[in-house]
Amino acid sequence: MTEFPVRRNTLLLSGVLICLSGTLQLVVAVATTTLVLVTGIEGILGLGPAIFLTTAALAAFPAGRLMDKHGRVPVLAVGCLVGTVATSLTALGCLWDSAALVVLGFALVGVSNGTVLLARAAAADMVPPERRPRQISLVLSGAVVGAVLGPFVFGPLFAGKHLDTHDLVVPWLAAGGFMIVALGLVLCVRPDPKVIARAIAPAGTHTAGPRTPLGETLRRPGVGTALLAAVASFAVMVSVMNLTGYVMTGHGHSQHDVFPVISAHILGMYGLVLFVGDIIERIGRRESLIAGLGIMGASTLGLVWAESVVATGVVLFGLGLGWCLSYVSATSTLVDLAPANERVQLVGFSDLLSGLAGAALALLGGYAYSVQGVTSLAVGAAVLSLAPALWLGFSRRPGREIEAASGA
Fold this sequence. Notes:
mainly alpha; Growth Hormone, Chain: A
């Protein structure tokens, strides 16, 4: 069998997620603030994240289909290029006080994120099923470096400033620099991971030809359970994460204080991801899903009492760690359930559902916070995390389906 540069490609894809994470640091920290400052309307504080999450969701499924048809690298490269354009448009919107440009920029940032995040499926292409949780973890670990870089790049740009729209121009332009670097890294990935997937597939495996209809794929045992876990974990995590900056300013903290908290959250998401991959392979995917969703529920409930920067950072770290356990396990299961020419389509469909649910929760959570305060946001997020965990824990059928999908 031909020896492929799997390690090299894995490092490059990890680097791409370093850059994406750096860009998302700014999006998470100031998206709500940016739109409120440009429009002057506080009641739409959840709209910025909702735009970003919705377009990310809508982009993920067609991007996955295009990757299955044309390969992983060309589509990832377009996603990086779109991210550069998106942050530039947002910067211009801040410079000219144009809500239309800011909204368009947010929409394209979402398209970029929804596309580039599929790099995790490209990474899974290059190894056999039993190594996929760790492989996905390896690529996602790149986001830790992005979490560290974010505050160093963006923090000084906000220090000591009482924000207006013009103060946001340079940070948004700097975010575009991250995506330019990501584009260069993507173009160095060779051969395309889809080529590797076909080469290492067991004899007789269906890796070419027409796709199985999506509806038929969704009826396979284990797919529905994995989708539920993926949607619940991502939607709760991303909605709470995107509203945290505004919650913190509501507690009297400055915008500068938000960045270390977001870094703690991303550290929770990816800092232990290498160990998480091993844990999932050792204890099983069903148990990992239950544990991850349970940790998320406990963490979001902690927002009721967390007011200091340190306490909020601890809560957001736990939210990220719970997401990591549940989401890596769910993604690994989905990848196992589809051959190479259908794989990213299924993961993209999962991202579509997850992003739309996250956008809806961001809007609902923003409204709930503005009307009733942080308690309603925290309790609602906890319930949405714990409900699927309890279902997985007490219902035997989904547990059997998950374990069968992973070959256990």
